[in-house]
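#lab-general

N.A. 3:47 PM
ok so I finally got the sequence cleaned up, no stray characters, all 480 residues accounted for. can someone with queue access submit it? mine expired

B.Y. 3:52 PM
send it over

N.A. 3:53 PM
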Amino acid sequence: MNLRLYDTRARAIRDFEPLQPGKVTMYVCGATVQSPPHIGHVRFAVNFDLLRRWLLHQGNEVVYVRNVTDVEDKVIAKSQAEQVPWWELAYRNERAFSAAYDLLGCLPATLEPRATGHVPEIVALIARLIEAGHAYPSGGDVLFDVRSFADYGALSGQRVDEVQSAGDTENAEAKRDPRDFALWKRAKPGEPSWHTPWGPGRPGWHIECSAMSTKYLGPAFDIHGGGIDLVFPHHENERAQSLAAGDPFARYWLHNAWVTMSGEKMSKSLGNSLLVREVVRRDVRPVELRYYLASPHYRSMIEYSEEAMHEAAAAYQRLEGFVERAVEFVGEIGAAPLAEDDGAEGWTSTLPEAFVAAMDDDLGVPQALAVVHAAVRDGNTALAADDKATVRARLLEVRSMLSVLGLDPMDPRWRRTAGQDDSLRSVADTLVRALLVQREEARARRDWAAADAVRDQLREAGVEVTDTPHGARWDVADRG
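B.Y. 4:20 PM
back already:
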């Protein structure tokens, strides 16, 4: 295998060699389900889906575990604010995340365990840590003794003397050191709890992932991934408690960068405007959103703007347009989207060397897409010259490359409906926009009744209007 990946622990790009040749085990920290996903939340899912697809293309079996944190301080606080049971809020948002992963074409996880389903494993791991002298019960909590683990801070590059208080318990006075973090939290009125040898309570955030990853992947596995915001404290603490318990744990640590707004991490306080379901209703198609999130390098920040997202959509449409014209010219090449059992067999084995080299170099998707666009330019030239042999060759290459990236326009998931449906959409868009112009003119002259009448007329016709800083946008209303 020629794949090289940036390992956060080593702070360097390393040759990737799985523990077992031909099989890759990967654990990726999934959602804490206190709210539905915005586009910043799902970047990790797209990035690690790309890695998984590339490993599959190389002929590997990939066991991909992505957890769901369904009990945690934020989930409990949000459920109390909404006055709904914590489990109801968690399940509702878990379904929203699952829908978003599917919408963006991410392959289903091999396993997707919930924290609440693994309390026995969590309790057993805590008991091992206590027995080894790395954890201690105190006042109903169980805390990890940071000073007992000499390598603490090695993942994130922090010195233990500079680490601030964990701030994850209300009885800080029970800690031997302010930096000690909670493995188990004592029960509080109105909160979920389970019985343990240390009293009733619930898991801390970090211990759940150590317990679930080793349950399904073993004490040593290949890749642990997640967003860069998880390096500290979450992954630092996972690593510390697992190694302290005697497990070799993850061999490679991979982290994707954020989606930012004005240089700040995209957060849940943004409201609903950038929720995945709203973006694909209002601004771009799901495949275009996938392209937008996938096209930068996974370790590069994405500074969100509508303009950048629409530029990405236009870039994808250029690829899509070539594929559609080429298929019309030479016929559709018999091909299917990449599946778990495809390996390196079949049509996706015809990838250009430059594309393969880019993907092997720490998943260099920007460079790989440059190869795709170059092939499209060559293909468009061949189309203009009626050069059927060259068109067919470029079509095969382009579809092969886009299939590996989960972006093949001919995949039934993405395939654009041609002909009458497109014409009807164009007619509808013209008519709706004419009414929206009337609405804006009424608002400009402060004729609110006329403006509301237009909005109500559209709503009765099944059209939902959303006002944005760039003007009004419309889509078919969700009748579900």
